[in-house]
Amino acid sequence: MGSRVGLRAKEIHALAVLKQEIWQADPHLRQQYLRNFTRAYTQYRKLVSMEDVHEQLRQADVVLVGDYHALPQAQGFAAELVEKLAKGMRPVQLGVEFFFSRDQRALEAWQRGEISEEELRSQTNYELEWGYDWQPYGELLRRARTFGAEVRALDRFPRAELSGIAARDRHAAALICEAQRKTPDSVMVALYGECHLAPKHLQGLLKRRLPRARVITVLQNIDALYWQSERENQHVEAVQVRKDVYCVFTATPLEKYASYRRYLDKWRMPEDPEEFRQPA
Q1: How far apart are CA 221 and CA 39, in angstroms?
Q2: pLDDT digits (tens, 9 = 90+) for 167-183
Q3: Class of domain 2-275
Q4: How far apart are CA 184 and CA 206, in angstroms?
């Protein structure tokens, strides 16, 4: 028992050091938009199982899934969710942030098998515009295509600065609403950066624009909720935060921030200085 306590203390210390390094390296974390998200989700109502979450999602019209871009487990959860929902009775649409809506034609050409993944990445300028590893996002797209889910590109160009992030939220909300009007019997799974899912951000826009639709938000690996759940039970799968808001746990905070730290190191030392950018 004592050794476990000692190990836990070392993990917490390592996490604190890691978060401080990230805080100093990434000025975006100080922006009000991101603080809105952090402050919104500090406690949950109750522990639930993953099956409880999936049961609720089968009744949803729109599912907003929080994406921590640097963490492959985040995209992996979205891929598993699309597969589970696609095996049900309703058609599934997958909305993604990592492509601009202007890239929809290229995305549809890939879905029809007319271009390869390499051509899709080239035509959308994926590496420069998004910058995160292709493999987990590519697997998400492949899983969606295998199970017949139509993929929609939701983001608005440009995305480099947070000053335009509210316009990006409005753009995505309009496209999700349009997709729902065209196929009202479908369920839309939209994978978006977690900070977009604060109550007054994309989530709030959709609830106002689709008042009759059931919009469910699924967060992933939120720090405060992780630590609260660990005090109750060391093997928590998911929690209900509030009505129609859940959080699932697929990684520890240390795994989560270590994944982002690796990208910060990568962006600091690009092979071509002209290609340096830090995706928002």
Answers
A1: 15
A2: 999 999 999 999 999 99
A3: alpha beta
A4: 15
